[in-house]
Amino acid sequence: MNALVSASVLGCDLSKIGEEVSDIQSAGADWVHFDVMDGSFVKSMSFGEPVLRSLRPYLKVPVDTHLMIVDPIRYVDDFADLGSDVITFHIEAAADPQEVIDKIHSRGVKAGVSIKPATPVSAVKPYLECADLILVMTVDPGFGGQVFLPETLGKVSEIRYMLDSLGRDAYLEVDGGINQKTARICREAGANVLVSGSYIFGADDRAAAIRSIKPF
Length: 216
Ligand code: DX5
Ligand code: ZN
Known about the structure:
alpha/beta, 8-stranded parallel beta barrel, TIM Barrel, binds D-xylitol-5-phosphate
């Protein structure tokens, strides 16, 4: 299965974010992953619309926006206007996930649904027929640079089985602690989009690091 690498901006040197985003795309990143944290759904705050607006001229590949915010429907229009190709929100943060998916689709954007490590697969099951991407968090959301939680792998395999049974080719994404070793076991479990921040941005040879997590 071909895998894509989505480079998490949170892992770059934020004092030169534009150059960093240009560099990681030249190194072979397939998507740019933009983590929005509100200090409420998760403890930390990251960046939001003004930063993505400033980044627009530097972006050449699809933008994979990951909303770690409460009541995500409030920001769908803003992130659609800024050219997100995928908008992913947390199922735990939405009162009516179907309404959020429909709103994202109404803007012509791909809709992703995400679950935290403690959230069971049953929470996303009702949306496997209509979501374009399922994101299984492999760390507790909130910070880059954390250690991969192997107990999340079972959920990746389970969702891969369900998507295949439904005949759906939705993306199955993993995010958190992805490096050469953890990427391989996630791909074997059925993931086909690998988010990586600290591993690829921290590498001396970023192109080699990207190739090491998507060797096909
Ligand atoms: C974590 C974010 C991730 C994070 C990944 O809450 O959603 O996208 O930046 O960073 P690494 O690859 O360093 O775990
Ligand atoms: Zn993320």
